[in-house]
């Protein structure tokens, strides 16, 4: 992961700056739009106010009479007009309304009233044509007294409709601007409050973003994501990450394959297998073996935290099926090898004895000794009827297990044997037979008159293995789940994998394994386990008489 350029702002600060800029921009645009609309509205209101003042002045009787008289006569000098009734009426109206000017003209456009007396009798600076034509006009213009919003209305003769002049009223632009400023004051305060709230919200959002990303920048997050994908997709182990709330955060494809179900983010821990749930509830526990479906899995978990903040736990799943099978097969081969070495040593000793007898001329004694050896069957097995087992590999394995049983004070004996063919798959057969015999020896070890009996029955090409013992049997409360991973009857609580592997191997061949008698039946009074292995025997029709169901 590349380090971030220290000259660049962190992403959270960039986000804060962009959000602040957006808030300022939106408020500026909103404020400018509001000011423009308010200016337009006040312009209209001031224009209507000027129009109302102009109408009132134009309806004044003194104004109408004075304008009519002035229009009918020759233009009068400014000194005469300054003291005239029209000037007085216009001055009073301007004083009452605060208008910039109130100007009255005759029908020639000559001023009869004006705020500046010296300009009386002069022609107005703006065109009075609309008003003199009988219309009303509202506009904004710059005249001799400055910019203003103005209105012009016609003045009609007393008692008639003939237009004899016009009244022009203006309200100063400074007055309009002042009203706009007064109206925009509250808007400015609201905009300032919105700006402060927006900046505070942006700061809070930036802080939350920094907390959610654990202080990581986008470049770092992208690098972590790439590494995360590479690791999850590249390793041969299954990985399941669970958050503190007990929800699956992520899981790779290998975990879904090994656990035998799809895993998606948001799945509850309660939906996972029991062993996985136990590891999630008690992380950092000792790794444990479990059998799920047809696989032997090694499960382990570990807590994950950052800056003293618990992020959850990670469960790793390793496929140990082949390793477990090979380990147990290796144990069986080693046991067979040990027995064969012992038999080889014993056979060599017996040959030395025969050689000595012959060498010393005791031919008759040598013959008797050989006949005695032939009558006792295989060397050193102590298992009556072992010569009935036709397959040498199976015979040697049973002999090895008999030797192991004797070391534990247990007698291993053969019951019914009807295997006439050769074992086609000695690995599966010895795995199943070895686990069943080991479990039986463990169950009766240390007991008085401990006996384990093995029945080997050929049914076509299938081999049926039955192992019974003289032990206390299987407790009723565990019989239903006896072949489940982790279920054991041992007092120490260890084990719980052998029977699961037996059933796994049997079912993989199309057969099955089951508890035929829990210990309350006849026979040796202990438990009876049966496994059927289709296709395990090559050649021979077999007995097919024993109903192993």
Task: Write a compact overview of the structure shown.
This protein is of the alpha+beta class. The chain contains 15 helices and 17 strands.
Topology:
Layout: H1 11-59, H2 61-72, H3 78-82, H4 85-97, E1 101-106, E2 111-113, H5 129-132, E3 137-143, E4 146-156, E5 163-172, H6 173-212, H7 218-234, E6 238-242, E7 248-251, H8 253-259, H9 274-281, E8 288-292, E9 295-306, E10 309-319, H10 321-359, H11 363-376, H12 392-407, E11 411-417, E12 422-423, H13 426-444, E13 451-459, E14 462-469, H14 476-479, H15 498-508, E15 512-517, E16 528-533, E17 537-538
Parallel strand pairs: 11-13
Antiparallel strand pairs: 1-2, 1-5, 3-4, 4-5, 6-7, 6-10, 8-9, 9-10, 12-17, 13-14, 14-16, 15-16
Helix pairs in contact: 1-6, 2-4, 10-11, 10-12, 10-13, 12-13, 13-15
